[in-house]
Amino acid sequence: MRCPTAAAALAALTLFFSFPALAGEPRGRFADLAADAHAVDQFRDGREIFRYATFGDEDFWGGTLGLHETIAGAANGGLGAGVSPKTALAVGLKVDVDNLPREVVRALRAGKVNLDDPAVTLALLRADAVVGVTGFFDKPRKRLTSVGIQCALCHSTVDDSFAPGIGHRLDGWANRDLNVGAIISLAPRLEPVAGLVGVSVETLRDVLGKWGPGKFDAEVFLDGKAVRPDGKTAATLIPPAFGLAGVNLHTWTGWGGVPHWNAFVANLEMHGKGTFFDPRLDDASRFPIAARERFGHVRADEDQITPLLGALQIYQLALPVPKAPNGSYDRKAAARGEALFNDKAKCATCHVPPLFTEPGWNMHSPEEIGIDDFQSERSPDQHYRTSPLRGLWTHTRGGFYHDGRFPTLAAVIQHYDAFMGLGLSSAERKDLEEYLKSL
Ligand code: HEC
Ligand code: HEC
Question: CA nearest 196: which of 222, 226, 225?
């Protein structure tokens, strides 16, 4: 090219188009890199939300129920004796050692922290170290003015590496030590919740007291059914929130997909401020409270939930299933158990590996699995969802099935053996159990 200006222009153009970022939307390898970065960003945002977002629910837990007043205690501007770290750990709350200031870790190690002093609980809250609970303090962060809760409250625990209840976070693990009923019961003003369910505060405290560790009743605020026909609590076990990628319907009774349930919980259970639509809750014969309160048609002035649902879902779906520790099961027996699971014991007809639930509509009637219909009748589809079985070893406390009716995996297997007439020998049942422990 003779003309230097044209040559320069052409060179500039070539340069421009070979750096796609300059030309607008990235393409090719640049597009792949941008997508990778986007996925990582979403995952990290989701982790922050899962651990720390209260969705504005402090207006309920602090503002309406006054839970922060009992936590602080009269000595710290609240009510009563206050909640000491010992009490907090006893009701299953967990402490994230990675958020503790170094001097607190040193003092704890030296045994110089008074675990009977509610002021120490406030210090833990100030450090954002109580898993799933955020304290709000007035300037200069002296008085606790409110508390909010997060997903991590029920769906994270810690590895106890520092002390029982104190360690590194394990996101997605069901906190089966957590006594949600006892925690709610601490609140000084339960009238709004009692009024919603249509009982006295005394009755409500009695109901909450029966939930026990690892359980919560998401449906009692929709249908007011606090006990099963056999008189036991209607609360269900907290399930893990990992290993859910590829799984169609969620919750024990398949209310919907992950984003449905996340919106449901954040709006209706945590009392965050957002938008929720589910006209199935307008069925007044099955969900009298939800229909009356129009829980299927929630709209807040300022939506603090909907913008967070995308990243929150990506985080949960990307959470890996923790591997069963070496030596926690017999490998040879587990290999024999796998063969039984896939063939003679017929487990894989519903628990399809590697999802361990059905790809597709993963729901079954109570008759198909040989149990009663109390809990399935409390859900829109009136069925039970095939539990994705990976990571069973992380939630052995509290038992198995939605209400923990089978105390051990051996009891679950015994149930299927009898109900489905599988004719398993005791050695085969043991092998199957070792396989379940390995998932
Ligand atoms: C107070 C305890 C509690 C809190 C807080 C909580 N959950 Fe849950 N979660 C439960 C219980 C109990 C169930 C089972 C409900 C059922 O089946 O009726 C559940 C079910 C789930 C499931 C279904 C799991 C499966 O196996 O399909 C997901 C996903 C989930 N929760 C995510 C979340 C997210 C995200 C948040 C925060 C927005 C959250 N949860 C807050 C107690 C809680
Ligand atoms: C007809 C479908 C079906 C078959 C066959 C089946 N399951 Fe299940 N399984 C389910 C459903 C549905 C649930 C959820 C029950 C509930 O929510 O109470 C479940 C729950 C479980 C649980 C409890 C999970 C938890 O988190 O508590 C275990 C363990 C289990 N099944 C193991 C097995 C084994 C082992 C076999 C074979 C012997 C088997 N299942 C056969 C449908 C099935």
Answer: 222
Name the closest ligand to CA 353: 2
Contacts with 137 (C-beta within 8 Å, 6 or more apart), sequence order:
125, 126, 143, 144, 145
What are the φ/ψ torsions at residue 325 (nearest 5 degrees)? -60, 150
Distance 400 CA to ligand 2 centre (A): 9
pLDDT > 50? residue 39: yes
* Weakest mean pLDDT among 13-22, 157-166, 301-310, 333-342: 13-22
Q: Tell me how far the alpha carbon of residue 317 lies from the centroid of ligand 1, in angstroms.
A: 14
CA nearest to 145, candidates 136, 154, 153? 136
Q: Which of 248, 355, 310 is nearest to 43 (CA)?
A: 310
The architecture that CATH gives domain 331-438 is Orthogonal Bundle (1.10)
The ligand minimizing its distance to the Cα of 371 is: 2
Pocket test for ligand 1, best of 57, 154, 176 (most atoms within 8 A of CB): 154
Residue of 383, 412, 438, 439 to test ligand 2 pocket, by largest number of atoms within 8 Å of CB: 412
Instruction: State mean pLDDT over 218-227.
Output: 93
Prior bond of 192 cis (ω within 30°) = no
What's the mean per-residue pLDDT of the chain?
Answer: 93
Structure tokens at 110: 């030296």
Residue 103: which residues within 8 A CB-CB, separation 6 or more?
Answer: none
Residue extents of the structural domains in the chain: 52-216, 331-438
Q: How far is the CA of 313 from the centre of ligand 1 (A)?
A: 12
Ligand 1 pocket, residue 262 CB under 6 Å:
yes
pLDDT of residue 149: 97
Ligand 1 touching residue 251 (CB < 6 A): yes
252 lines ligand 2 (CB under 6 A): yes
Model confidence at 141: pLDDT above 70:
no
Q: Which residue has the higher pLDDT, 21 or 402?
A: 402
Closest ligand 2 atom to the C-alpha of 371?
18
Which ligand is nearest the CA of 415, by number?
2
> Model-level pTM?
0.91
Q: Which of 18-27, 341-350, 389-398, 413-422 shows the lowest mean pLDDT across its residues?
A: 18-27
The phi and psi torsions of 162 (rounded to 5 degrees) equal -90, -50
**Mean pLDDT, range 202-231, rounded to an integer:** 94
Residues 363-373 have a mean pLDDT of 97
Q: Which two tokens stand for residue 390?
A: 């990976």
